[in-house]
Amino acid sequence: MSSLALGAVPAWRVRWQPLLSSMAKSGTGALISGLLMAVANKLLATTGGPATVAVLATLQNIRQAAVVVATGNGQTALIQGACALDGQCRREFLRTIAVWSLIATASVGMALIVAPAAFARWTGLPDGGEPLLAWMAIPVTVSVAFVYAAALLSALGQAGRVATVQTIVALVMACGAWPAARAARSGHLESLVLLLFATAAASVALALIALWRLRGTCREWIRGTGRWWSADALRRFLSVSGVLLITGCVAAASVVQVRSRILATQGVEVTGHFDAAWSISMNQVTLVLASLQTYALPSLAKARTGEACAAELSRLLLVAPLCAALTISVLALGKAQVLSLLYSEAFHPAEAYLRWTLLGDYLKVTSWILSMAMLAAADTRAFLLADLAAYGTFGFAAWALADRAGAAEGAAIAFVVMYGLHAGVCGWYVFRQSGRRISRSAIVAWAGGLAAVVGVSWWAWKIP
Question: Is 55 within 8 Å of 275 (Cβ atoms)?
Answer without folding.
Answer: no
